[in-house]
Amino acid sequence: MPSLPAALETELAELLGEGWRSDAAILAAHGGDGSRHRAAPLGVATPADRAQVGALVRACRRHRVPLVARGGGTSSTGAALAGGAVAVSFARMDRILDIRTDDRIAIVEPGVRNGALQHALAAHGLFWPPDPASADDCTVGGNLACNAGGPRTVKYGASRDNVLGLAAVTGTGDIVTVGGATTKDATGYDLTHLIVGSEGTLALIVEATLKLAPLPEARASLRALYDDAAAAAAAVARIMAQPAAPSMLEFMDAACIRLAREVGGAEIAEAGALLLIEADGDAATLPHALDALERAARGAGLRAIERAADDAAGARLWAARKALSHAQRAIAPAKLNEDVVVPVSRIPALVDGIQALAREFDLPIIAFGHAGNGNLHANILYDPADAGQDARAHAALPRLFALALSLGGTLSGEHGIGTAKRGFMRDAFDAPTLAAMRAVKAALDPDGILNPGKVLPEA
Amino acid sequence: MPSLPAALETELAELLGEGWRSDAAILAAHGGDGSRHRAAPLGVATPADRAQVGALVRACRRHRVPLVARGGGTSSTGAALAGGAVAVSFARMDRILDIRTDDRIAIVEPGVRNGALQHALAAHGLFWPPDPASADDCTVGGNLACNAGGPRTVKYGASRDNVLGLAAVTGTGDIVTVGGATTKDATGYDLTHLIVGSEGTLALIVEATLKLAPLPEARASLRALYDDAAAAAAAVARIMAQPAAPSMLEFMDAACIRLAREVGGAEIAEAGALLLIEADGDAATLPHALDALERAARGAGLRAIERAADDAAGARLWAARKALSHAQRAIAPAKLNEDVVVPVSRIPALVDGIQALAREFDLPIIAFGHAGNGNLHANILYDPADAGQDARAHAALPRLFALALSLGGTLSGEHGIGTAKRGFMRDAFDAPTLAAMRAVKAALDPDGILNPGKVLPEA
Prior knowledge:
2 copies of one chain form a homodimer. Chain A is an alpha+beta fold.
């Protein structure tokens, strides 16, 4: 177990004052993340500004002590685990620095919570599109570091698509400032979008200029039931091929529907697949958009389609999706929750392959999620206390990733890699591509002190 | 003047067969670009496939001879000038490899012309959003290399926003393969968007997976005249703050309107500023979208607003913009055509500043372009045969860039840097940021053989 050099501890205490702690209580509070793995950091730095972040990185670099950025600690991949490293909490850098409605941008510090930002923006009739399920707890810095998405990505894009500029501290302790308050830019290298999704391994984000969208006046929903996943996927392709972009387009496979019905108590007919389709817009155009979406949703294999004109009726349509979370917990104490992504046309093959894995490994696996992006959550449900189930669940995992890759997809659409999927990166990328990624890592973090052991596999 | 090592010439002739030429005719044909500067390459390689590109780069690397990728040769910044280097033409790698309508993607070789691709896609009811004025001549590879945009960027994004994956040959001759046929990706470093806009200095694109959009059924336009640029910019902010995104939102300043009226013969009233606003969509929603845009366009300082319900009427509204090109040529034989970008709220300050420069340097400068993105074309009109005008035009240029930067904007929204704006990169980025860009360059092109002397200033 590495320990913190005494000289560095003295330096950091002097630099950060009350922003430096290494007592057992703070180490325990920063020892886990949404992956449910635990690893205590060597200490917790809570810098107050970017200059402190720069000085912190330079000090750690001199001692070759790694740093791991931490937002809300909600990552499901272990990206925020800081064992053997200094955890850098952005809890004190949580201000919204500016909201410029005319430019549709917000300038924020990384520690602001996604939900708190949305609340502040709503007062201006604006929102920031990334909407992960953890919005109340996760931070904008974490969203950017992991390229977080959510259901609205299908219309509005993920975190990477909604950031215009960054200030970030690289592994040399230097502050790079790229992009800005403009929505079009052909000036120099796009380090902004490179740093986004690099999970704190290339630089620590200390400020972000976010691209905002107008908050829609209203939303309306459709729920369509299909004979099978192939019929639903064909509808997804039709929906995405017409100009009225849905604001959400969620899929549930037969296993999800059965679980939601039989365990979750959802009032829904049996079906081979389900689509939840949401449109947003203003009062004048929304009915037309919903018409267009309904026309596209109709086709071979459709069993039933229901329409909700307002939020309350919409909530009833979405009840089956909500029932799913409870139902999963009722039948299995744990799940391996993966977020593979495939081309939309390969959704049926993905769903079939997942059910074949469920049979082979004798465990329930359900598939649901963001169909418009081909980004399905495959949850392998199991009891970790049952050694057989535990072994089978973990044996099914590499096969799931192999399946997604064989269909022209990839490992993660919105959760990221962290430590959880790091071992599969060699399957997702060939050796020259991984070598290029490693070279970029070495360029921005020459001593490898930023979140080592994450994202890229060992050379 | 460097010359080609005989051993390399032999190697390349053997490798490429008829794809290698160094006669005077081919050197002359590849000696210029849209910048109107000229510099003959050492030879012209026209590889037939990615393996040849890899071998070509490795051979040149062994001899430390630089390579400059070339698409349609339409760059206005000198990015494709290959003096002292081997020009790499993608004229033989111009196939559309696949159009997958269900996944809304096209897989193309870099040499396909933008216009040819659009033609092929239209048959499937799809289009690729980047729409530079040079669409018939420029290539997709060139569009990606320079992050080309166009008027539709305001709704659909520029080249970087419409590419999902790349295969590209780095400066080591290795082929990296990143991204793919999925619209959501949180797997590893985003080299795709880093390579886009790097103007062939990081890697040569040999294949691209493009994100397509559904071709709208119909378009309709508005033309609004305002008292001044401030009133027009306020309307731009209102338009962009409501959910009905315009498919184009073009601005003309008072100098443009005067030129279009008095020299171009456009039938248009005098005004301080003009907006051309286009919506696209289906027949049912388009009138509503146009209503919403008209409501947003109305406000203090509006003089008149006209509406065109179909393409023919639309063409009449856009006639003033078209008249501008002819009118410019009529009053001045040359122009310095820049494409600075500022936050939307700073458009009035940019326009005022440009007119102050026009007075100070005693030359006509007109400002027009993509207002929704704050991306204005500032054309300095002058006669290069007049030594005084020539000197004043080139003296005004750094002041224009300084103005855009002082307003929180940047050097280029869609043309890129090339050699033309390379000298101003130190004004746009601080030293640590340029150092980080140089480190990334060295990571992917360790011997500096890819398009040297472009984009980044000397260290």
